[in-house]
Design goal:
The structure holds 2 protein chains of 2 kinds. Chain A is of the alpha/beta class. Chain A contains 13 helices and 8 strands. Chain A has an 8-stranded mixed sheet, sandwiched between helices. Chain B has 2 domains: 241 residues, Rossmann fold; 137 residues, Rossmann fold, CATH 3.40.50. The chains are: A alpha/beta, B alpha/beta.
Chain lengths: 319, 389
Amino acid sequence: MPEKEINNSPELTPGHRTCAGCPAPVIVRAVLESSDDPVVVAAATGCLEVTTTIYPQTSWNVPFIHSAFENAAATIAGVETAFQVLKNKKEKIKLEQGEGVFEKQFGFDLANKINFIVFGGDGGTYDIGLQSLSGALERGHNFLYVCYDNQGYMNTGGQRSSASPKGADTSTTPPGKFSTGKTQFRKNLMEIVAAHDIPYAAQASPHNLADLRSKAKKAFSIRGPKFINVLSPCPTVWKFPPGQSSEIAKLAVQTRFWPIYEIENHRLKLNWEPPEFTPVEEFLKTQKRFSHLFKTDQGKKEIQKIQQKIDLEWEKLKQ
Amino acid sequence: MLAQTGAQAAAEAMRQIDPDVVPVYPITPQTPIVESFSKIVADGLVNSEMIHVESEHSAMSAAVGAQAAGARAVTASSSAGLALMFEVLGVASGMRLPILMNIANRALSSPINIHCDHSDSMGVRDSGWIQIYSENAQEVYDHNFLALKLAEKVSLPAMVMQDGFITSHSLENLEILTDEQVKQFIGRYKPQYPLLNIEKPVTMGAIQLPDYFFETKRQQIQAMSQAREQYDAVAQELSKLTGRSYPKIETHNLENAQAIIVVLNSTAGTALAAMRKLKNEFREKVGLIKIRLFLPFPQEEFREIIKKAVGENLKTIAVLDRAVSLGSDAPIAKEIKNALFDLSNKPQVYSYIFGLGGREIFEKDIKKVYLDLISKKTDHQVKYIGLRQ
């Protein structure tokens, strides 16, 4: 898509207050402009929600609802179910009483098809919202859940989440005499989501918008629950210059830190394989949140462990 | 006339309301409401779609989503379920969504206990929901329509309470309206700003900073006042259909009463029976107040009723609470003391706690309260009915 068209995306308008260099609005636009049908959006509490809906202004030019932090999936479940019921009512009324009667009785018209989309950060998805996400996936609602994963609670100042990678300096896992940053590896959400036997799950990166768009398009063509996990490098908390978000996302994919792939009807397909091996250091050294790892022997050991885990995960994906 | 439990009465009312979306999660003693309704759905008697969610938090969240979308959403809960919903109760009322919820009252943990008290609904009394309490299955049934219509008039959510097990699981005779009568009474729900209106996109649940939040809360406060004002008209309209009346505050035998008991839900029935069985010489001196509309609390009306009664004979009021507010006065006692504070000529208000965790209360217990009040064998110390000392 030409640059001009991307910038003119009417669904999420400019003027929102995301930090300079934040990929979240780019991800949202790529997803929304991939829908041929009208959309209704729900968002979990988080960076995207607070920066785009500061009353009395809103950046959303499509129907948008935010309820709370942990319930975006349950909220969209209610919206989507309401749509199905009202649609049936509309058809019944049309058959029994003719055209235009529904509109008169309910005070609005109902589109024939709507794509229901959730945007949640990793806190609202991997952590506090995991239960409602699991419930909605299991029940099979017709919606697309997009996680913009910036690997921490960035809206509240950068605390660790279960999506924060091992070794990361977050505000609740600071490095120190007895700490090399976050101890644990990040949660494998994709495996958890895929275990719900949903028809489509994918991982994507904002440096490759064509890939993200084609995944969103595919998701919209499938009925049932769909999930896309998109890396969202955070200049503010990962600590890198705002102009480098895309470059860092690209490095995450090149170093296999963030493989891009899709799982369609149980078949996993890697969408891009790096032609050569690039050590994870290349990704880690671009961000200050990992800088302490390079300064001590223990930190260097952590980097080795991170590399080993990446290699292991990559082998699993290739099988 | 049908023989129905309180739970079935709620489900029958829901059948006639035919809500669009019913998100549910099981919890004792509410479960028979959603079980009965599930059968109604399975038999194709309604157009409703149920969402069998994975928690009460999600039940209320899905109700918020559905109602915001432009549909009618109804759910039910009890105890821990209502407590788990707490966060989303405020979302529902703050977003001004007239969701209807049936509550089978049950104690809150800990200790875990499945039996009736009012700590659950009293615990959420600052959430911005209209609260209507029911004495029996008939009232549960009637109140569902009353609550729904009032809620939609003022754009606030409403909950209808019934005592867990005592009402929810007891069979009673139930007079029901025709489906057509209910349909006419509740009318079609016309959402103000439906999320599903693609032509006019709205942002719901926006963030409000200190420059707007206060005004939004003020609007909610006003909506609650409107609910108080509009209640009577809705109640009278329902009365015309059923022949039963639904005053916010129901009074019995206040004319010459020296002492009255204030109570709500099923114990109002027990108290009435106890009062009627008192010897004539005592019966003339006592009265009963049953609170139907607890929130918004009808302060003015209550004050006027008491003012009039004090002008005659009233000396003492015993408020019977089936909940405690640990570290403070019990919820209804507090509400009533607050309402009477501005009266220059006040009766004595005594607080009684009873029935926590389903502890039985009998007519003899109520009789004793009346006799103690009349013989002035009481004081301002909080009393516990039926408690082993």
